[in-house]
Amino acid sequence: MKYIGYIGTYTKKESKGIYSFELNTESKKIENISLAAELGNPTYLNITDDKKFLYSIASENGKGGLASYSINQETAELTFINHQLVDGPNPCHVNTGKNHRYLFSTNYHKGTVDSYLIHEDGSFSPAVSTIQLTGSGPDPRQEKAHVHFAGMTPDEKYVAVIDLGSDLLITYDMEKNGKLTEVNRMETPAGSGPRHLVFHPNIDTIAYLVTEFSSEVFVLSYDSENGSFSIKEAVKTIPENFNENNQGSAIHISSDGKFVYSGNRGHNSIAVFQVDEQSGNLSFIENTSSEGNWPRDFSLDPSEKFLICSNQESNDLTLFERDTDTGTLTLIEKNISVPEPVCVKFL
Q1: For an engineered disulfide with 233, which of 91, 219, 286, 304 has Cβ 3.0 to 4.6 Å away?
Q2: pLDDT at residue 133, rounded to an integer
Q3: Closest CA to 211 of 246, 241, 184
Q4: What's the pLDDT score for residue 61?
Q5: How far apart are CA 50 and CA 164, in angstroms?
Q6: What confidence score (pLDDT) does residue 340 get?
Q7: 52-82, pLDDT tens digit by residue?
Q8: How far apart are the C-alpha atoms of 159 and 116, rounded to whole Å?
Q9: Contact 89/64 with Cβ under 8 angstroms?
Q10: 305, 311, 313: which is closest to 334 by C-alpha?
Q11: pTM of the model
Q12: 126 SS3 class
């Protein structure tokens, strides 16, 4: 079996844009890495659930925003549809809802979250709502709002937005026209630096939040009545005796809801946790070396028997085989050359 995937990158040095690849599950190799779309700093990607469209961060001539592409599911070819760019730095994250009607971007540098409307042909509108967040935190890197993530709750009633700069998880109600209105906010511990969020696929009241500065995963309770979150539990993603710089990166969960994976930049590892099926709480299993420098993100393949990690600073991918019973990772191949990789997404 061969699965098609895409790699989002920085284009500060050698990268030219979005790259495609194939994962051959029989030979257990990553093959046919090639440039799929030339684009400035397409650091983060999002593929719609129906696999028809890809949305990417984009920058060009001092402007930043998003770009949309249609996907040829046979050849992996991307065909440009449209983009929306505005003056200033590009966003850091892009996300869609399940029904492909709404698109969201968050801008770390500007401290904003934007919502857009998606049209049937995959194109999208200029931003219909832009929220400017304000605030700060105790860490020197929290001198102002740094919005890092926006995503719809599983019931699609709300949009959850994470501000790393102010240690906040803010919930917004969204009207049909895409306008956002704040309904709730949760403070994380001061200086923790919340970064990314993932919901449990089977327990709709549980979510997991990774922090960049305190290297933790917070197990969250979610109340769909009012869109509120609260912290149930906090677990460390690195050993207690690791005192060097570490920054939490990405968080993902297996589709059966049994295992959570969290990336560590600095410790250069992926933390593996087992999920309690009743409470949703986490038990630490192991830290697996990312076999490269600065694992910015990673992805489970569609079979979930493999995991691909993108090491931004060492310009490579690492391929692991995943034990679906124990959640543990075994190295298959490392030093797979890709320039400035940030994220990996599969069709």
Answers
A1: 219
A2: 98
A3: 246
A4: 95
A5: 31
A6: 98
A7: 999 999 999 999 999 999 999 889 999 999 9
A8: 13
A9: yes
A10: 311
A11: 0.97
A12: coil
HEC string of 17-29 equals: EEEEEEEECCCCE
Question: How far is residue 212's CA from residue 243's CA, in Å, rounded to a whole number?
Answer: 15
CB 172 within 8 A of CB 163: no
The amino acid present at 89, given as its one-letter code, is P
Q: What is the pLDDT of residue 98?
A: 84
Q: For residues 91 and 64, what is the distance between their CA atoms, to the nearest angstrom?
A: 7
Core vs surface per residue 101-115: b (16+ CB within 10 A) or e:
ebbbbbbbebbbbbb
Distance CA 344, CA 307 (A): 10
Residue matched to tokens 């549980």 = 206
Within 8 A by CB and 6+ apart from 134, the residues are 111, 144, 145, 166
CA pair distance 94, 55, nearest whole angstrom: 7
Work out the number of other CB atoms within 10 angstroms of the CB of residue 199: 21
pLDDT for the residue 112: 98
Tokens at 23, concatenated: 């994962």
Give the separation between CA 209 and CA 251, rounded to whole angstroms.
Answer: 8
Nearest to 176 by CA among 228, 126, 216, 118: 118
pLDDT for 25 equals: 97
**Residue (of 260, 266, 244) closest to 312 by Cα position:** 266
Ranges of residues in the chain whose predicted pLDDT is under 70: none
Residue 339 near residue 13, CB atoms below 8 Å: yes
Task: Please tell me the distance from the alpha carbon of residue 112 to that of residue 160, in angstroms, as a whole number.
Answer: 13
Query: Looking at residue 157, what DSSP letter applies?
Result: S
Beta bridge partners of residue 147, listed in sequence order:
163
Which position has the token pair 């709002």? 145
Query: Comparing C-alpha atoms, which of 111, 90, 107, 109 is closest to residue 42?
Result: 90
- 323 within 8 A of 21, measured Cβ to Cβ: no
